[in-house]
Each structure stands twice: as C-alpha cells, then as structure tokens.
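Reopening: Anoctamin still failing for me.
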Amino acid sequence: VVESWSFLDTVESNFRPLVVIELAKGTKEETIEWFTKRIVDKKANGGAQLLIKPLVMENGVENIYLVGASHLRLLLGAETVGLVKECSDNSMRTFTYSSRKTFKDFADDNHNFLTMAECQYIIKHELENLRAKNEKMIPGYPQAKLYPGKSIVRRLLTSGILVQIFPLHDREELKKLRHSWYGRVKVGYQPLDDIRCYFGETIALYFGFLEYFTFALIPMAVIGIPYYVFAWEDYDKYVMFATFNLLWSTVILEVWKRICAILTYRWGTLLMKRQFEEPRPGFHGVLGVNPVTGREEPVYSSLKRQLRIYLVSLPFVCLCLYFSLYVMMIYFDLEQWALDYHKENESNFSSLMLYVPSIIYAIVIEIMNRIYRYAAEFLTSWGKKVLHSS
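Support: Ran it again with your exact input. Result attached.
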C-alpha cells in the first residue's frame, strides 16, 4: 500500500466530482491556495491526495470547488476507512488493496465497485482528517489559530472561511433511482440496495424501517377495525385486543432487529471495524504516532485526561446535582406550604396558589438549563485552551 501511495497521481484533468466545498465570498487568495494545496498534496506531506477544481460562476467568482479522487485513491481510501465488502466466496471481509482481486465484482476497470455513497464517505473522511502540521494560523487570517493536530476543516468552519461541505448529486443515477423507487404506480418493495448505493446505509435503513413498519401495521389495522366500528359492551374483548397489541409490539421489534442485522451484514456495516478509525475531527491534541496503526494522529496524555476528569468534570457534575436536589427540596416545601394555605383558607385565591410552586419550578428549571448550557460551552472552550497550551 505504501508503494501504491507513492505512485498515486494527483493530477487528472478529467475526474468525477463527488463533493462540493463552498468557501465564503471574499476568501483571501493565499488561504484558497494553501487549502487547495493541502487537499491535493501527497499523504506523506500531510495532504489528502485528492483532486479539486474550481467551479467558475457566471459572475466570475470562484468560491465553490468540486472535489473528487482517482479510482486508485478511492480504493486506498476504502482500506483506510475499513470498508467491508463481499468476497468471491460470499464471505464479508474488510477491504484491503493488496487482496483486491479476491473481492466480488472487482476489476481494475470497474469503477462501480465502490458505491457513490462509499466514495463520498471516503472523500468526506479524508477532508475532515486534514490536520495542521507546522502551521500556527490559517494563512491570511492571523486570528484563526492552528497548532499541530488541529483539524483544518473544523477551524475553517468555526472561523467562517468554509461555509459548507456537501455531497454532489448525480443526475443520471438519480433518474434511475427515481424510476425504480417512486416513479412507478406498481405497488412493491422499495429498492433498498439502490437507495443504499446512492444515499448510504443510514438513509436506506430509515426507509427500510418505514417499509417494514407499514406492513407490520396491517394485522393490527385488520384486527382493530371491528373494535373501532362496533361499541363492544364486553370489556374482555378490549383486554384481548390490548394483549394482542402488547404481543404485536414485542414481536415486530424483535423481527426488525433480525431484518436490520441481515441488511447491515449484507451492506458491510455490521462488521465494520472501528478500532482503526481516525480520531474524530473535533478531537484536540498534539501530533503523535498511534502505537497500533503506526499513523500520525493527535494524542493526549492519559494522566492529564484523568486529572481533568476527577479534578474538574466530576466536582462540577456533583455540584450541579447538589444544586438540582436543593432546588427540588425547595419546590417540595413550597408545594406543602401551598397545600396548607389552601386548607386553611379554602378560597379562590388559595386555589390559584396551588399552581404557583409548579410555575416557579418550571421557570427555575429553564434558567438552570441555560446556565448549564453556558457552563458546558465554557468548560469545552477551556478544555481546548488547556490542550492548546499543553
């Protein structure tokens, strides 16, 4: 694989765009040049080794860029993210470039071996894991600080330089999917495999569940119609319906678990290994070497992490719990006072006073929620500064 990376060409005049990058209007030229260079630069130099070209608008503004990758780059990226594919012997294994010939439907000229969703996921993964090496700031924006290991895309987003990154539609594939999915009047099952290839496993599972639940409601609807139409005087029949409802809800859940496992196994997500994943883009730390994969990635001292948990996070959580319990006890005292006051007076005013503790408690809860949210954001920001200073 290392040899394949070294021979991978990053210059290709004609490539299939898969992902769109939108930069803020007026982004400085040196920033664009630096960012695009990091995208096309080789992996050994800290780049993503992808392909990129600007989309020139009618007004001549170039703030939208199309990102793609060569076929070889996508295959190597599939190994990096740990995609699971079907082998020729019908087993499911993690894809590796060295054993690519053993996988079903693989051919050097078969550019459909990886689905569109998988290709876009690979590019998104590589972009999100572009990390700073020796840069102290984003070129052209001194206020946007960087340090080794910081996610470049995350910093560009928080600084407002990068507006958004989103997958690009393929009109021809979308037309085919529309025809096989909802363009026909014929009632039938949804093309879940085609949906998965285009939109990914998450969307396909969502529509798969909708389809399954729609069919699962049929027996409940058939049995429930007589209960809705006729007013039964024998309440034992309603007990029987409630019992059937309980059994039905349990059975459909267990059956869906089985169907979900079948789909995820067939699509390779059930066996997808997570131990070799890149750190999430929001992770902060200094650049180091992962002892398992041997790749350079952000790391953080385990001792410092434990100290922060036990000396900052845990005391803060305990303090919040104590304050919440204290407020709750005050609410109980107010409620008891309102009940005693109502018993003594038995008036319209005393009846209204019964609602006062609940109203006060609801207002206090809303205020506390805002305070907790602010405290969480402050501690998160403080944590980033601590990691940066370390």
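Residues 302-345 form the longest helix (44 residues). If you still see a failure, please send the error message rather than a screenshot.
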